[in-house]
Amino acid sequence: MYKRMMQKEGIEDDEIVMVGLVQACANLGHLKLGLSLHGCMIKRNLDRDVIVQTSLVDMHAKNGHMVLASHVFKDISCKNVVSWVHSFLALIKTVWRREFDQVLGTTVIDMYSKCRVLSSLSHLGLMEEGQYWFDLMVSEYKIQPSEKYYAYMVDLLARGGQVEEALELINSMKTEAVLAVWVALLSGCYNHKKLLIGEVAAKKVLELNPDELGIQALVSNFFAMKENWDELAGRYCITFSLVEVNGDLHAFLMEDKSHHQHENLKSMLDNLYQDMRGMRGLVRVMMETKQPSSSPQ
């Protein structure tokens, strides 16, 4: 389409067109076309715009050309908050701390962008880098962490299984931890099966009485993993399955073994599972025997 626009339609490309094309190449992973576009922009002197250069950094980083992406970033003459943050996020795994340290504590990088950096580090699971930036902002640049800062750091530590360190960070807060902080800790405890600290986080979440169904489901799943149904009684509606047999209703909960015929039901399900496995093998044998012979006539 781009070639047709340039050759047949006679449309002149500019920075806006190039940014759109570069972003498309970055999202599609089209390495060859991306390099071709970059060369075309250099020839037409369209690669000097800061937005174009930032999009090139993102494209080359996503395509694995970290060295080329770093060169493009260093070639940006007038770096602004957009170029700094987006380039940092693109090159986060080959981070050049010295350059970013120079502007991290200044007004060039606003509070929203700093939160984005911590959020990205959290989702990438880069605990060492996240701890570095957090300590740098707090200790060296004397930035008072907001609730979002703490939430991102707790999420970063909890995702990596360091729930003890995450709880210590929460206890060091000068203000009362908000719901997002405790949810981040609970999620990490649930994923890593940290039951003791998870129970502390779950009870804190219950005290804050969240309305969001996703958070309620997280709490329910955690206590179900602990087989602790009493904590949910009277708080949330516990979902269960109902089966009617001869006019009688039988209720079943996840991990619940209280049914008077639990062992018999488990034995029957095991037998059905083995039968289905045997049938699957029988079907495979039947299909193989029905395949036409490949021997010559």
CA-to-CA gap between the ends?
Answer: 52 Å
Order of helices and strands: HHHHHHHHHHHHHHEEH
- Globally, the shape reads flat
| Major pleated sheet | 2 strands, antiparallel
Q: Determine the structural class based on helices, strands and strand pairing.
A: mainly alpha
Question: Could you characterize the architecture of this molecule?
Answer:
This is Pentatricopeptide repeat-containing protein. InterPro entries: PPR_At4g14850-like_plant, PPR_rpt, TPR-like_helical_dom_sf. It comes from Acer yangbiense. One of its GO terms (biological process) is RNA modification. GO terms for molecular function: RNA binding. With about 300 residues, the protein is mostly helical. It has three domains: about 1-90; about 95-240, Serine Threonine Protein Phosphatase 5, Tetratricopeptide repeat; about 240-285. It has 15 helices and two strands. A two-stranded antiparallel ribbon has the order 1-2. A hairpin with a 2-residue loop joins strand 1 (about 240-245) and strand 2. Helix 2 (about 15-30) runs parallel beside helix 4. The longest helix is centred in the C-terminal third of the chain and has 29 residues, at about 260-290. The chain is flat and about 80 Å long. Residues about 295 have low confidence and may be disordered.
